[in-house]
Amino acid sequence: MNVYFIINGTESIKWLEALAAPFLIVMGLTLLYWAYNSIGSFGPMLAQPSKFKTTGEFWKVFIPSLTGMVGFWATLSLNIPDFSRFAKSQKSQMLGQALGLPPTMALFAFIGVAVTSATVVIFGEAIWDPVVLLSKFHNPIVVILSLVSLLVATLTTNIAANVVSPANDFANMFPKKINFVKGGLITAFTGIAMMPWKLLSDYSAYIFGWLVGYSSFLGPIAGVLICDYFIIKKQKLNVRDLYVRNGEYEFTNGFNLKAIYSLIAGVLVALIGLVVPSLRELYDYAWFVGFLVAFVVYLIIMKSAKEKI
Q1: Nearest CA to 7 among 224, 114, 163, 226?
Q2: Does 153 share its domain with 298?
Q3: What range does the domain containing 90 cover?
Q4: Same domain, 114 and 215
Q5: Which stretches of the chain are DSSP H helices?
Q6: Contact between residue 268 and residue 279 where contact means Cβ atoms under 8 Å apart
């Protein structure tokens, strides 16, 4: 199904994206109502005791988990121009993201926690996997509607967040040979070759290994981009030179080595915590550390280069 929409272009799934948001919110609230109705109130859901015995134990898990979630969303945040460039105005894209992302993510995070907490009371065990939870239901209509919800959520999220950006990236790397469709197909098969089910088989490895690990690369990229656009360029771009050779942004054969050095510096500092136990916090805060180091290094070397000129 993913490949079908890739071949037919992102416009072919636009109608489903538009319907998916309200549909999934309704289904999420229905699930929350089921949990509420099954145990009679929100009290038992919210009264479940913490699994952490001390505040220190909580922060030890919370900090890398926070970094992992930032890393999870950092992919889309870096590539949001793939979508926001089609907005009617700066205000409309800002308002759309402000209304569309934080409130809904907060809602679904609460639903996930509340329903998982309710399953402890209802089934005697914490069930966080929606597929496992579905196996507890015996009404075929409920099961079918729930599976359709999972299908719609997976399909619309995957196309928007995981296909459009890399497909455009592959196409931009080799525009003469790769178009969006070919880039999307490369993305699809690469996604299978990475065996993501292996990552998801262990939540600890997925969050603390994969998400935190690749956030050490995404943070420095964001640091360089933001520093360059807001501090160095002062939000002014020479649009024509973005698309020509030997223009303002040619640098060294098309590569800004100063940006690459800054990226490497940010990644290395963030990953030091993996090999030096006493500096583990650098890795736990990988995205933030990488962002800050790359931002500062890029600012310094770009300013120094301008002064020499």
Answers
A1: 163
A2: no
A3: 1-194
A4: no
A5: 2-8, 14-39, 43-46, 55-78, 81-84, 90-100, 102-123, 130-134, 140-157, 164-173, 180-193, 196-200, 203-204, 212-226, 257-275, 280-284, 286-308
A6: no
What backbone phi and psi angles, to 5 degrees, belong to 252? -110, 95
Number of structural domains the chain divides into: 2
pLDDT at residue 309 is higher than 70: no
**pTM of the predicted protein model:** 0.85
What CATH number is attached to the domain comprising 45?
Answer: 1.10.4160.10
What are the tens digits of pLDDT across the range 13-70? 888 888 888 888 898 999 999 999 988 888 887 887 888 888 889 998 999 999 999 9
And the tokens for 231? 């501090």
**For residue 255, which phi and psi values (nearest 5 degrees)?**
-120, 130
Considering the domain architecture, whether residues 170 and 227 belong to the same structural domain is answered as no
Question: DSSP for 209-228?
Answer: IIIHHHHHHHHHHHHHHHII
pLDDT digits (tens, 9 = 90+) for 145-174: 888 888 888 888 888 888 988 999 999 889
